[in-house]
Amino acid sequence: MAEEEENYYGKHGEPRKYDPDFKGPIQNRGCTDIVCCILFILAVLGYVAVGIVAWSQGDPRKVIYPTDSMGQFCGQAGTPVANKPYLFYFNIMKCASPMVLLEFQCPTTQLCVESCPNISTTLHDAKRKTDSTKDPKHIKYYQSFCKDTPITGMSVPAILAEGICPAALVASKPFARRCIPSLSMIGEKLVIGNSERFDDGQGSIRNVKELVPGIKNATIVMEARQVVMKIFEDFTRSWYWILICLAMAMVISFIFIVLLRFLAKVMVWVMIIMVILVIAYGIVHCSVEYVNLKNKPGSNVTLQELGFQVDFSVYLHIQQTWLAFIIILAILELIIILLLIFLRKRIAIAIALIEEASRAIGHVMSSLFYPLLTFLLVGVVIAYWATTAVFLSTSNQPVYKIFNDSACEYSRNTCQPANYSMSEMKKKCPDSECLFAFYGGETPYHKYLIFLQFYNVFLFFWCANFVTALGQMTLAGAFASYYWAFRKPNDIPSCPLFASLGRALRYHTGSLAFGSLILSIIQLIRVLLEYLDHKLKGAQNKFAKFLLCCLKCCFWCLEKFIKFLNRNAYIMVAIYGKNFCTSARDAFFLLMRNVIRVAVLDKVTDFLLFLGKLLIVGLVGVFAFFFFSGRVEAFDPATPHLNYYWVPILTVIVGSYLIAHGFFSVYAMCVDTLFLCFCEDLERNDGSPARPYYVSPELCKILALSETPGASTRSPSGLQPSEEDIELKAHPKD
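The structure corresponding to this sequence follows.
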């Protein structure tokens, strides 16, 4: 037996020795991983510099407002086109050019206008009606879609030759702030108004179908922008209700955690039963919806036939959608029930661990509010990243190119609109125009812009992981102080959470930066693999797809392992104050020496806490669904009118999970810290009066010590420490 124990420990390091002077987190410690600390500070300073450059060069108006041929933002306050919010195309049929797909700009003059044309007419007709009726209203209306150049006394051919006005107007309606021809169907005929044909103003009668390719190309980017604008509009209409739902999630999470503190066993079983009931209700509700759609026309369309739809509510009118929901929920219900059956004996042990964590949190109540600081810091990181990304993506300069109808050697060359009319290129190509094409640039800054975006993403991962790591180490130090206090709560140091936060920032910023750097590199590689996967969607190389899939799976597993290792390494850093690599090694060997307990205790506890998150998300998500979808008449007066009601619902579900995860992460970190301290306690002490365990007698009885090699030599007393034990602990025998 002794030989087996020696071989086992030889593989996974030496167990901790008894140290009479050890009383929890080491106070006398020094700075760790200084090189990484300096590197992190320099990286953050560089990140600030990138943000300043982006803010000085970028202009978010390029995303919000459409740009006319002169580079002006339509509808931008404080500009000559402030009251002209819509973009009008002189000849939208030119948008059918393949160049639109390359440059995202139609090779035709574009103007900012007050409103889109509501009639179809031509310049010839407007001139003729004005001359015959002596009423200038016809030509004045037409002039509202022309350049600011006087046309009094000019003939129609001269006006068209100068490119002052469009040859024809087509009845249009605004779409994403652009004027798009108002096409409609009468039977199987495509019409504008009531006609299948229109006059192009240049002596030809054209079919309405000829407008379709140009409209499609012109709306490639506009449709995406329109969806984004509608989503933004939904947020502006429902933000306060979203905040109310998130506040509900926060209150429910807090109440649940507080009840868990006093009624851990009852609350865990209530949580388990409630999760099963909530999922069962979801199955019943989806089944009812499925049956109700059975005889409705169009409900038997398959998801494959329907394809992707921006309005997700369309899917709720299809039977197959509800069938998919039923199958997913049923599988989830079955998995949870089977896990509960197989883990029924371990649940009692996990509940004991949660009860011990509840006692620890009861003595460090400030830990329940620490997630708010983490949320705040992560929110700052996300806001900085998103703002910098927007400004970087809009920091290009307007590029103007030559567009022409006839052959021209300078076609698609860059130009300057200010002096183009007097240039040599205009003289050689008289019918050409210098129009705004896209945003770009040829300076070194613009050439390396992609690397700045790459740096922005990488620093976002690094800073977000650093904030998370700081929270983990802070909580670990506080709960370790609780565990290694022999007389609780008398020996617990004052303000353990703030003391732990101070130690983490003062001594271990480098270790936090080191661990988060490793994790960030792996996450960045996963982002690059996803990007490559997106680029290879149309590729036919099966081996490349298989290899990419394997790499994605491997790096996903690696990320999970690094997160697990980092978490335990931070606990060891918080206790012993050693550098990251040494702490990671010690934590890994300690866990390997107690691998059975890790599998059956720690992970079961994680599963129970996950059910708690699932319950909170389910309760708040069901309420959000019935409120925002308008399915409950009592909510109708307060329910906001939305384009996509799934937008606030998804926001509430994701936000509720993050809030629940934030609160339950305190419990999870407490359990992990107590578990690691418990494993060390077993190695340092033997339960004798001279070396009593720090773990509570109740937990010591439940956690069977026979599960680790060599445990037969240990025999927990199972008794509350007496005054004699405490005296022996303070003054051990030689």
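The longest strand covers residues 433-440.
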